[in-house]
Amino acid sequence: LQHYFIQSNLRGSMLRQLSHRATCRWIPSIQQQYANFGNTPSGESNYLSHSQTPTTALQESLPRLPIPELSDTCSRYLTAQSPLLSDEELKRTTSIVQDFQNGIGRDLHTQLLAREDSLDPQFSYVHDVWTEMYQCDRGSVLLNQNPILCYVDDPDPSLNNQLDRATNLVTSTLRYFRTLRDEKLEPINTCMLQFPFLFQSARIPQRDRDLNVRFPDSRHLAVLHKGHLYKLQVLDEGWNIVNTSALKSRIAEILADTRPPNKDSFGYFTTLDRVTWSGIRPKVEVTNSELLQTIDSALFVLCLDDSTAETPEDVLKNGLVGDGYNRWFDKSFSLIITGNGKAGINWEHSWGDGVTIMNMINAVQTNYLLRTPVLHDNGEKADLTRIDQNIDDDVMRHLTAAKQSFEAAKSGYELVEFHSDAFGKEAVKKFGASPDAVSQLIFQMAYWRTHRTCVGTYESCSTAAFRSGRTETIRSCTSETKNCSVAFDHTHPATPSDLVTLLKECSVKHVTLCREAAQGQGFDRHLFAMRALNRWAGKEELGVFSDPSWGKMATIGLSTSTVGSPALQYYLGFGAVSPKGYGIGYLMRNSSIGAAVSCYLPNDHFSHFVHHLHSATEDIFAVMSGKNFKPSRKL
């Protein structure tokens, strides 16, 4: 990818312009990338910190993501398969894995090691493979890729209105951009390769493989309100942030626009599958090149929604899907603010992960609470331009189909909040277990009680402590969670002492899996990279992956991820991975646990699953607290 330029496979005059205006190849050097920005003299109002040590100072000292030993990968894979398979299936799969380990797997592992030696040292063995996975996914980014995180409400209720929230959050976000741009953020022990794509970038649809494109010279926001687009200049020629009063006036001007909603917005196109959208975009570009360039090149998109949302479910649904016409899901991230001041970040996942987004959210929220206005004398620079659509009959025909597709997707999923005050981190730690292990056990028990089986489970673990590390999979469905789920059944003769022992065994196992994943010692990415090498060589599918047992593991019935911060109001919201599976963005706080739980419809088991999240929580608490546990409820 370090030689993967935008000039490949471009269509249309606008994309030919992008080849000159945009930086699309992967970063030759993170320090060089930031050096290209240059340091511009400016006032205190531009920054939210003034680190004397460059932000990227620790990048070169980060270790490279390790390639696990082949024997460890094969052993971990079989261990993860154990709760999913019958004895006969496990015996067959063990034979297949042994043949792989002693044959073609050994050759592929050797090739992987040799290939790593030929890569730029800043890139890991899985970097381009993982990027390819995202960019070549031909499904819609809606629900499948883009998640949502919501800012905590302003502690001053009088400032929880759309105008003040937009003004203050945009100001603090621009400060974060300037501080990052000029390397004045405090260095963090995290790979910085994703950070340049946080701002001034977009995902451009192509037929076979999308492109992540950067526009390092842009100084404007793309603002969407009621489906109408506005270009708002927010940085002057010296890269100074425009003063706060001018910014607020411009946003107020947008909100005062009395035009009816544009429910034929091109934003619907970004919810289509990528092949369809890539075919439509050149047609849109013919008479709308300025509109597309304004959005693609913007620092980020600001979505000012007319709708209001109060409940956690409604806020998360609005941020995750919304109304379609006031969104642009291809943008690196969109700051969404509802009519009643609820704010969130929806981001396109191919360029980066939650660690990068959370670094921004935490810094922005800290600065936001200081309520320090920008006082530069440059208000006249906050130019506001209204950009209207031009739609011919052919584009309108495609737009009608896109709207229908969006409405089907919107009505074809569900998201609810699960919340329990039964216990939280404090009680779990007092019991002597891991809070994340207990959270995952709740999900496993609920699934067992609902479906009477175990299922392939994905828990995301960041590997950003390594150069170009992204994520590794924690396979949270284990033999220990299966044994515990069975033991809590009303037909099982387990004693309270047995259940305590099983709970703690689950915790020990889960902590080990988390540690291995965080150290780059999972098995999923290693197998994934070897599979890609085999595919690139044009060879037939590996036996490990043609084995029906792999199909069981790859059918992710529980896709889970946790993100916690004082800056966040709710949980991470995202769609389920498989048609009959569940998506669970969860968080265990000091004295409670909760989650945003999603699924695709129809799903006759969804309400039962949510019910059993509660019942599993109550039963685990009873055992942890030494109460007389009576598993009397029928499952």
Query: Would you tell me the structural class of the helices and strands?
Result: alpha/beta
Helical residues, percent: 40-55%
Number of helices: 20
Taken from the alpha-carbon principal axes, the silhouette is globular
Distance between the termini: 51 Å
Average pLDDT for all residues: 92
Strand content: 5-15%
Oligomeric grouping of the chains? single chain
How is the largest sheet built, in terms of strand order?
Answer: 1-8-7-6-4-5-9
The gyration radius over C-alpha positions equals 25 Å
**Stretches where pLDDT falls below 50 for ≥5 residues?**
1-42
Can you characterise this structure?
The protein is of the alpha/beta class. The protein has 20 helices and 15 strands. The protein has helices spanning 12-21, 30-35, 70-81, 87-102, 104-118, 127-136, 162-181, 244-255, 274-297, 312-320, 354-368, 393-411, 425-431, 435-451, 479-487, 496-518, 524-536, 543-546, 548-554, 606-624, and strands at 148-150, 201-204, 211-214, 220-225, 228-233, 301-304, 333-337, 343-347, 384-387, 413-420, 456-462, 471-474, 556-562, 582-588, 593-600. It has a seven-stranded mixed sheet, sandwiched between helices. β6, α10 (312-320) and β7 (333-337) form a beta-alpha-beta unit. α3 runs antiparallel to α4 (87-102), α5 packs across α17 (524-536) and α15 runs antiparallel to α16 (496-518). Mean pLDDT is 92; it is low at 1-42.
